[in-house]
Amino acid sequence: MSKLLLNRTRNILPSLLRIGTKSDIITASYTNNATPINLGVLFVPQQEAWVIERMGKFHKILSPGLNFLIPIVDRVKYLQSLKEIVIDIPVQSAITKDNVTLKLDGVLYLKIFDPYLASYGVDDAEHAITQLAQTTMRSELGKIVLDSVFRERESLNIAIVESINKAANAWGINCLRYEIRDVKLPEKVQEAMQMQVEAERKKRAAILESEGLREASINKAEGEKKSKILVSEANQLEQINRAQGEAEALMRIAKAKADSISLVAQSLKQNKGEESASLFLAQQYVNEFGKLAKTNNTVIMPGDVSNVNSMVTQALSIYKTLNRKETADNDSQTQTNKTD
Length: 340
Description:
Layout: E1 41-44, E2 48-54, E3 57-62, E4 65-68, E5 74-81, E6 85-95, E7 101-112, H1 115-120, H2 125-141, H3 146-151, H4 153-168, E8 173-184, H5 187-269, H6 273-290, H7 292-295, H8 308-339
Antiparallel strand pairs: 1-4, 2-3, 2-5, 6-7, 7-8
C-alpha cells in the first residue's frame, strides 16, 4: 500500500498481562501490513486520522486520542498521516522549447487536508501524484527555452505546484511546494554553454580593457591640459611680475634723475653755483671730447676745438635763457591766479 496513504495499517496483537501483577497495561505490537484490530477501545496517535468502515461502508474518521468502536461491526480501513510528506520525483527526460533534451529530478512536498478524499478519491495517491508531477514538469519545460530554465527556476516550480493542485485537490491532497533538485544537460550542450561562457568572459574582458584605455587617455589628456594651463598661468604671472619690476625700476631711475636735477638746481641757486656748473661742464666736455674717435670712423668736430671757454659760456647762456623763461611763466601763472 502507498506510503502516502499510510497503509502501514498496524496490527494490534494484544497480550493481556497476567491478573494480579503490578501492572494491568495492555501491550501491543504493530506490523506494517495490517490494520489495527478492533477491540472496542482504540488510541489514535497525534497527527493521524483513522478511517472507519461499518459493515464495509464508510462510517467516520477517528480523531487523535481515546475512541470507542463496536467490535467486529466496525473496522479500521485506512490510516492517513496529517504531517507534511516528502516524495522523491525520479529522473525523467524533458524537451525544452528550443529542442534540447534535459534530465531532471525533483522533490515534492505534500499534506493531506481531507482523509476521506485521500482514502476514497484515488487508489494509489503516491503513484498518482508522482506521475502528475512528472507530466506537469515536462509540459512546463516545453514552454521555455534552455537559457530560461536556470533563470526562471523559481517561477517554473510555482507553475508546477499550481498545475498539481488543480488535480490533487479532488484527492484531498495539497501540494505545498516543488523543487527541481538536479538538471543534467547533454555533453555537447554543456561544451557549447562552456564556450559561450568563455566567449562572454572574453568579451567582458575586452570591453573592460578598452574602457580602461579610454579612461587612461582621457586622464592623460586632462593632465596635459591642466599642465599647459598652469604653465601659461605661470608665464603670465612671470611677465606681469617682470613688467611690474621694470616699471618700478624706471620709476626709481626717473625719481633719481629728478632728485639729481633738483639738487643741481638748488646748487646753482647758491653762491658760486654758476662757477661750479661751468667747471662741471668743462670737465664733461673734455671727457666726451676724448671719446669722439673711439666708436665711429666719422667724427664731427666743432669749429673751435681749443676754445673750451666759449663752449661752457654757450651752455650756461642756454641754461640762463631757459631759467628766465621758466621764471616768467611762473610769474604769469601767479598773476592769473590772483586775478581769478
